[in-house]
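Hello, quick one for you while I still have it in my head. No rush at all, and the record is pasted right below.
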Amino acid sequence: MNLHDSSTPPLGGVELLRAENLSHSFDYPLFENVDLTICENEKVAVVGVSGSGKSTLLHILATLLKPQKGSVNLLGSDIYSLSPKEQLAVRRYEIGIIFQFHYLFKGMSGAENIEIAALLSETEPDIELLERLGIEDLMQKRVTELSGGQQQRVSIARVLSKKPRIIFADEPTGNLDDKTAHIAMDAVFEHIEKVAGALFLVTHDERIAKSCDRVFRLENTRLERIE
């Protein structure tokens, strides 16, 4: 399948993210000349074996790592041509990142973790979201008192409380059972619809991947559409 044909949404739409000619390597090439466009109300998943470069690609698109070659345009701006202060503003207000490891502030409660994110992005925590994720009764507990799955749900709530336009999620359901994973991803999908946003998802879960609008595989340095 031709990468340039499959990298663009079939029906077009308002463009939120455009990556062009991305290449990156560490001790070996991870990916070369990757092109990808994501429009509003679109969910894109990437699958592939461990070490293929999926997380690195996500980090580049999410402004956490500058590519060795290529460009990333987010919400109309070439993100890596912006000043560090301007990049920080984009991360603060427009981007939400759900990591495989939750990265919560361990000395704080779940509520404090979520409140800090909402405060920095000038939004309000969503009480209904906490109830939906089944963590409303855990909010006053310190993060260290929570199980891995509970911590991950707090992490997801923290990201959604920012009300970001674009969400980057790296194995967001890795610590969740099937039922909870389904509930969590439904919450993410509904948020995307609510804000006319976009989702870039890295996952090993084929069922979650297939619930997205387009599915790509990163393999042998190439990103190719498979669904």
